[in-house]
């Protein structure tokens, strides 16, 4: 079977993958560096082919609530934005998690805080994996490191979201969103029929037939005993996800004496750093978390028995490093190296940081 | 004649709609919400469209509307119901999609969603209960609180220098090209209830006939928040609310 290879930006890959994976609706608002998602969808006009809806909302707040509304009827719906816009979406994200609705949010991160910069950053790690909105909830967080993964993770994120009735997020950054690479787009998958949705999502609010109780999409419960039960149910679900859905990639880790831990664009740069360092005789490996939540704590703990030290390389002031340290639990030294405000490190800078911080 | 003789089915002249269940309502005695709920139930039943109806509840006193009418519901974040309704209508254009919102929800925190939904013109219905006060949180000032009206957050009366003017948002919505039917009703007398029911029916028909946004404002009382008896509230509403929010159709492009 011949695969069609295309050259495109990560943001464009998200749009094409959404159409191809049977997405029913996209609701977005322009913000750099992710506007190509909405632009591509509007150019392709998928409502003429697959029937997918695309709408430019009046704000990120409206967009995420459109997602909430659509998801409540069992439809496969998504939104995308960049850091300041994703902050605005946190209200809706918390409601999605509380009402246990499947949906996809894409964050193509830029530097902050505040309006920050339009240049790439990974400073929304905490926001993504530690909550972001109010309440005890988790998002299934996928971190693509290539345009190919931007395309592949759209379908994967939807599958996981529907499997667990939980919102999923693709956490990319300005590098992955803007860079062009070759990509093989996923095959076309038909959108589900209304009958299929009712079967797959018996909880969906689609209009009450006579033969079932009314469906109510809500996260509200005033009885604290019942509310605690709901919360316990959520936490149990999160435990199941943690047990089943951890994803990561190991690069040259077998004989590693030092370990780099990095996700997304940082992992791509670290891969080069590993190559250069090994040519210098330094035995270093790279562990790339693909799911930021659930976090690959067990495999990192395993490497704590093998390596002398670890360096968490992130385009921020030190966020994921906290989870690496929790996994390592004091067994070996764990340091952080980052650049801030939209500056991206070179492989040489990473090797230099390794030498000064952990060797 | 015994009571058993009287309550025979053939003597039944009035009943609540079947859609309205027997859960005890959390609304205060004298509140307008119960009547509006009943009208929605009656109209949906008479139109026989329950299987195609999706309602969206607000944050505010009507947050629990989903407990009383046996239809499918989604509970919105504060003010966001119109954005949700637009998405649902786009994804499921043959459904009757309506929001049920209070004045704080619709005209304060949700102003942007309200205006853009009304301007975009998707065929949704907005039932807007305006009682000039935040009931659920204990009687604070609303965007529609009248000048001089006392609330918990304007205890000396709404002072426009301090708090700005009452927002006549329905007047604004009628100017938007996406609305097809904008009307202001009340439910404080039997005659008013009949008129309000007709308005809701028309709004729901517009919804299914893809005519655009229909807005039915119900000028209402909040006797607990206003600190009056239900009777006094109705009188106060007639004397004070109606001059600011006069009843009647503001727009109808469907005629």
In words, what does this structure look like?
The complex is a heterodimer of chains A (359) and B (255). Chain A is built from 13 helices and 15 strands. In chain A, the strands form three sheets. A seven-stranded mixed beta sheet of chain A has the order 3-2-4-5-7-6-13, sandwiched between helices. Chain A is of the alpha/beta class. In chain A, 42% of the residues lie in helices and 19% in strands. In chain A, helix 2 links the parallel strand 2 and strand 3. The longest helix of chain A has 21 residues, at 224-244. In chain A, helix 1 crosses helix 2 (36-44), helix 3 packs parallel to helix 4 (83-98) and helix 10 crosses helix 13. With 255 residues, chain B is an alpha/beta fold. Chain B has ten helices and nine strands. A seven-stranded mixed beta sheet of chain B has the order 2-1-3-4-8-7-9, with helices on both faces. A two-stranded antiparallel ribbon of chain B has the order 5-6. In chain B, strand 5 (133-134) and strand 6 (140-141) form a beta hairpin. The longest helix of chain B has 19 residues, at 190-208. The chains are: A alpha/beta (359), B alpha/beta (255). The A-B interface holds A 24-25, 27, 53, 55, 57-59, 61-63, 65-70, 72-73, 75, 77, 91-92, 95, 99, 194, 205-210, 213-220 and B 50-54, 56, 63, 66, 70-77, 80, 83-88, 90-92, 95, 112-113, 116. Strand 9 of chain A pairs parallel with strand 2 (72-75) of chain B, so a sheet runs across the interface.
């Amino acid at each position: 079977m011949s695969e069609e290879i295309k050259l495109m930006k990560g943001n464009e890959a998200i749009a094409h993958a959404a159409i191809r994976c049977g997405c029913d609706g996209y609701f977005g608002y322009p913000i750099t560096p992710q506007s190509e998602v909405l632009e591509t969808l509007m150019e392709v006009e998928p409502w003429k082919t697959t029937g997918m809806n695309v709408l430019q909302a009046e704000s990120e707040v409206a967009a995420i609530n459109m997602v909430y509304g659509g998801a409540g009827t069992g439809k496969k719906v998504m939104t995308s934005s960049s850091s300041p816009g994703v902050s605005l979406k946190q209200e809706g994200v918390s409601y999605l998690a509380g009402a246990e609705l499947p949906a996809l949010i894409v964050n193509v991160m830029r530097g902050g805080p505040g309006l920050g910069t339009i240049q790439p950053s990974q400073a929304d790690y905490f926001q993504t994996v530690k909550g972001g909105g109010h309440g005890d909830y988790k998002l299934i967080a996928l971190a693509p490191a290539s345009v190919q993964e931007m395309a592949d993770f759209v379908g994967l994120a939807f599958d996981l979201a529907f499997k667990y009735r939980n919102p999923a997020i693709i956490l990319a950054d300005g590098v992955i969103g803007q860079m062009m690479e070759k990509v093989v787009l996923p095959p076309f998958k038909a959108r589900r029929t209304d009958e299929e949705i009712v079967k797959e999502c018996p909880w969906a609010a689609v209009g009450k037939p006579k033969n079932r109780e009314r469906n109510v999409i809500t996260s509200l419960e005033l009885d604290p005993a019942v509310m605690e039960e709901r919360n316990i149910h959520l936490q149990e679900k999160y435990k199941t996800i943690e047990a089943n859905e951890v994803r990561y990639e190991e690069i040259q880790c077998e004989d590693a004496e030092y370990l780099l831990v990095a996700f997304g664009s940082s992992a791509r740069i670290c891969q080069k750093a590993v190559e250069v360092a090994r040519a210098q005789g330094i035995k270093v490996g790279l562990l790339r978390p693909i799911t930021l939540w659930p976090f690959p704590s067990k495999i990192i703990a395993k490497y704590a028995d093998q390596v002398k030290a670890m360096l968490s390389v992130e385009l921020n002031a030190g966020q994921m490093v906290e989870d690496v340290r929790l996994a390592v639990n004091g067994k070996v030294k764990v340091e952080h190296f980052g650049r801030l405000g939209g500056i991206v490190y070179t492989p040489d800078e990473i090797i230099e940081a390794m030498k000064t911080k952990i060797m | 004649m015994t009571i058993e003789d009287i309550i025979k089915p053939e003597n039944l002249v009035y009943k609540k709609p079947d859609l309205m269940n027997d859960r005890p309502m959390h609304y205060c005695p004298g509140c307008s919400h119960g009547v509006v709920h009943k009208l929605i139930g009656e109209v949906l039943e008479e139109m026989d469209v329950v299987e195609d109806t999706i309602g969206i509840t607000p944050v505010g006193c009507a947050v629990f509307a989903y407990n009383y009418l046996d239809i499918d519901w989604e509970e919105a974040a504060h003010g966001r119901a119109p954005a949700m309704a637009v998405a649902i209508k786009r994804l499921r254009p043959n459904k009757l999609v309506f929001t049920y919102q209070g004045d704080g929800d619709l005209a304060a925190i949700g102003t942007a969603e309200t205006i853009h939904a009304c301007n975009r013109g998707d065929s949704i219905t907005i039932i807007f209960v305006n009682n000039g006060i935040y009931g659920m949180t204990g009687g604070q000032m609303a965007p529609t609180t009248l000048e001089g009206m006392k609330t918990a957050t304007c205890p000396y009366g709404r002072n426009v220098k301090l708090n700005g003017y009452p927002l006549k948002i329905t007047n604004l919505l009628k100017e938007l090209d996406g609305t097809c039917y904008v009307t202001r009703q009340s439910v404080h007398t039997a005659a008013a209830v009949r008129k309000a029911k007709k308005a809701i029916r028309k709004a729901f028909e517009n919804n299914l006939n893809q005519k655009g946004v229909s807005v039915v404002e119900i000028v209402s009382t909040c006797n607990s928040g206003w600190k009056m008896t239900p009777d006094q509230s109705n009188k106060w509403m007639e004397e004070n609310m109606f001059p600011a929010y006069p009843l009647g159709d503001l727009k109808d492009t469907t005629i």
